[in-house]
Write a structure and sequence with these properties.
- The complex is a heterodimer of chains A (about 210) and B (about 350).
- Chain A has about 210 residues and is an alpha/beta fold.
- Chain A contains ten helices and seven strands.
- By secondary structure, chain B is mostly helical.
- Helix content of chain B is about 80%, strand content about 0%.
- The longest helix of chain B is centred in the N-terminal third of the chain and has 40 residues, at about 1-40.
- The chains are: A alpha/beta (about 210), B mainly alpha (about 350).
- The interface between A and B is medium-sized, with 26 and 33 residues.
Chain lengths: ~210, ~350
């Protein structure tokens, strides 16, 4: 990014942006300080079918304990080495949060206006045989996320969302949607629209925070 | 006096001959049972054999043996559907293969000879790449599309052969034509599709039993067990076909009709089996051959033996696929070939006479 900014002669702007981004990411780092028990996460990019998983940098950054890290090397992130795992192994690991990466974005993203389809996808996961036994499903902590936000160029924004998903108590005041909006309007100079994370996070969602208390 | 004696001897020989075959079928069923018991006990979560059996009994006889809920879930919702799916799909593919080889009198025939697999693959690819995706309600689209296109290809061939005569040559050539047509269409779709869509298509084409659920097992079972008696009814006719068209006709067999009906049935079974699990190769080709080498070419015995052989092969392959890199799962298609090919080659090298 610094290089391209030099080419385009906008070094100042780029520096400003990077600083702004760094400040937001520091919010996550600070919020996670003193974290002892990481939340177990199961990550499923949905483009290859059920129970295909992989490590994800954004999940690691947000303080999640991605269960795929146990069986796949970190290089899998760069080489897109997603692999199928057995459903019973997921039962055994009992993830507390499930992140479904929507790719290519169909049920979430810039053009999607409501959460109906994303909710259907969540329901599909919850109704898979045996999955009703895992903590994430019992506590309704299954999320669909635009995969661009978990693994793409904007995965740093994804990390903000993930931090809030994983630790709503710690990140009560963090508003990833607001930062996302700022990114769109201030830096990309386009209108903010679309749905990116389902079910939506936010201060209005009190139930979810209560769950975390347990 | 002398004549009746030989007659008795021949009868004795014949009943001896059949008894051997029936024993072999019995042995295969036993083997299938043992494989299934092994398969239900192996998985990424190690469960005690006792607990697994308890949870099975509890559900069937509503007894109240001491068994944990998690064990019960794993056994009943994850392992058993997959095992049952392996069995019925293996049976279906092997049965279709045995029938196809008999109908077209060609040892290279398989359930996929008539382009059924390519057509199913095209149907699935169309559903995936048209953007309806892999999960959720859209899954139904993939299954339906695969099934419909598989049947479509066989109807096209039936139509073509209706115009000419249903000889083995026309059938095979028309099948090859269909295969190329649908493969080309799938390639075209992949060329136009997104990278992710293409990945999904390749994944589907590899074949996979992970998506097995009880309703799907039920659907495949209906197709497989519904067509098995029909195939058995034609067993004698298939036998006469292998003796050559002239002989068959002189025995009063309507060769064309047998071919067309057999073909339609084989396509139906294949389509029913692969629409849920993707194209699983080799089982349909190898199981009938292995069975034929062991018990001979009499379709009355060959059909059930092939079924059992296919079920054992696919189940064993899938169990290996789940176990080798556990908890990672290998595509089952890779394992069917790795397990089946050595057995296949061994039998080819060892056979004493021309079995075909």
């Amino acid at each position: 990014m610094r290089d391209s900014s030099k080419i385009l002669g906008k070094e100042e702007k780029a520096k400003e942006f990077l600083e702004w981004r760094e400040s937001k990411l520091n919010l996550v780092k600070e919020g996670l300080r003193g974290l002892e028990e990481k939340v177990r996460v199961y990550n499923e990019p949905d483009f290859r079918g059920p129970y295909v998983t992989r490590p994800e940098r954004s999940i690691d950054f947000a303080g999640g304990n991605n269960i795929a890290n146990e069986i796949l090397p970190p290089e899998a992130m760069e080489k897109s080495m997603e692999k199928e795992v057995s459903a019973e192994w997921i039962l055994k690991k009992n993830p507390e949060v499930v992140i479904i990466g929507d790719w290519p974005p169909r049920v979430t993203g810039y053009r999607v206006k409501n959460y109906t389809k994303a909710m259907e996808q969540i329901k599909e996961f919850m109704q898979r045989p045996g999955m009703e036994k895992i903590s994430a499903v019992r506590n309704s902590r299954v999320y669909v996320m635009d995969y661009e936000l978990s693994a793409g160029a904007t995965s740093w924004i994804g990390a903000l969302y993930l931090a809030k998903i994983l630790y709503p108590q710690r990140f009560k005041d963090l508003d990833p949607g607001q930062i996302h909006k700022e990114f769109f309007e201030k830096w990309l100079r386009i209108d903010y629209q679309g749905t990116y994370v389902c079910p939506p996070l936010g201060p209005s969602n009190k139930n979810r925070q209560k769950d975390e208390g347990k | 006096m002398k004549e009746s004696k030989t007659e008795i001897e021949v009868q004795k020989l014949y009943s001896e001959f059949t008894r051997r075959k029936i024993t072999f079928i019995f042995f295969l069923s036993l083997l299938l049972g043992v494989t299934a018991v092994i398969a239900v006990n192996i998985g990424s979560v190690s469960l005690e054999i006792g607990k697994v059996l308890c949870s099975i009994f509890n559900r069937i006889f509503s007894t109240n043996f001491n068994s944990e809920e998690l064990t019960s879930t794993i056994v009943w919702e994850l392992r058993l559907p997959r095992i049952s799916m392996g069995i019925v799909v293996g049976m279906g593919l092997a049965m279709a293969g045995a029938a196809m080889q008999g109908i077209v009198k060609n040892p290279l025939a398989s359930p996929y000879t008539l382009g059924v697999a390519s057509a199913a693959g095209f149907g699935a690819a169309l559903a995936i790449i048209a953007g309806v995706g892999f999960l959720g309600a859209t899954n139904l689209w993939i299954v339906t599309n695969a099934f419909l296109f598989a049947l479509l290809s066989s109807f096209l061939i039936l139509g073509l052969t209706k115009l000419k005569r249903a000889t083995p040559e026309t059938l095979i050539l028309a099948g090859v034509a269909m295969m190329f047509l649908f493969s080309a269409m799938t390639s075209l779709l992949q060329y136009m599709g997104t990278e992710e869509g293409v990945t999904a298509v390749v994944f589907w084409l590899l074949g996979n039993l992970s998506k097995a659920t009880w309703p799907k097992v039920g659907a495949v079972s209906i197709v497989v067990f519904g067509t098995l008696p029909l195939f058995m009814k034609y067993a004698w006719d298939f036998n006469s076909l292998t003796a050559g068209d002239e002989t068959a006709k002189s025995l009063g067999v309507n060769t064309e009709r047998v071919r067309l009906v057999g073909l339609a049935l084989a396509s139906l079974v294949t389509a029913g089996a692969i629409c849920f699990v993707g194209t699983i190769g080799f089982i349909g080709l190898a199981s009938p051959h292995i069975s034929r080498m062991i018990i001979g070419g009499d379709h009355r015995f060959l059909l059930p033996t092939s079924c059992l052989m296919g079920a054992v092969l696919l189940l064993a392959a899938d169990t290996a696929a789940k176990t080798i890199l556990s908890p990672l799962i290998l595509p089952v298609g890779i394992l069917t070939s790795f397990l089946g090919v050595p057995l296949f080659v061994y039998l080819i090298m060892k056979r004493r006479k021309e079995y075909w």
